[in-house]
Specification:
- By secondary structure, the chain is an all-alpha fold.
- It has 2 domains: about 70 residues, no CATH class; about 60 residues.
- Helices cover about 70% and strands about 0% of the residues.
- The longest helix is centred in the middle third of the chain and has 52 residues.
- It is rod-shaped.
- The chain starts with 8 loop residues before the first helix and ends in a 19-residue tail after the last helix.
- About 5% of the residues have low confidence.
Length: about 160
């Protein structure tokens, strides 16, 4: 016989205390051999079979038990409100943290692009300064201004060899 698993047996036992007595009494007289072969079926198993089975007819006892179980559900939710609030707060923090991380990543990407732009500007400025500071450029500027005191040397530079 297959076992039926129920998550919350305590509540089911509170809802159906009289059913176990009724299940022990057999309605139809059977031979002693048949009674010994059959295992006693509890009211919990009857209820689960009626809910899972394909039968459309539900006896009054099962319907009453089902109504009592459904009435017990709001009490369970009321007793577990602290846990539900804790789970809801965790979900809220998880979503908020995800959005905050996304905003920080976008800001980081923007700052990296700005840093790259400033690097390129710096390289450009350094190359322009190097171009302006070359000797040939300085001589040309001085000639354009009319300063004649500075002229290029006519003597070639010589190499000094140092012995170690």
């Amino acid at each position: 016989m297959a076992e039926i698993e129920i998550d919350n047996i305590e509540e089911l036992q509170e809802v159906i205390p009289e059913a176990s007595e009724a299940s022990e009494v057999s309605e139809t007289p059977e031979s002693p051999e048949v009674q010994e072969e059959k295992e006693p079926v509890s009211n919990k198993e009857k209820l689960m079979r009626s809910l899972v089975g394909d039968e459309d007819d539900v006896d009054e006892e099962t319907a009453a038990s089902l109504r009592q179980m459904l009435d017990a559900a709001p009490r369970w939710f009321l007793s577990q409100w602290k846990m539900m609030l804790l789970v809801l707060a965790g979900v809220f923090l998880y979503i908020t943290n995800g959005y905050q991380a996304q905003v920080e990543m976008m800001k980081e990407t923007e700052l990296e692009a700005e840093l790259k732009d400033w690097r390129y500007r710096s390289i450009t400025r350094v190359s322009e300064l190097t171009q302006l500071c070359r000797q040939s450029q300085l001589e040309q500027k001085l000639r354009e201004q009319g300063d004649s005191t500075l002229t290029p040397s006519k003597v070639a530079p010589f190499i000094i060899n140092v012995k170690e």
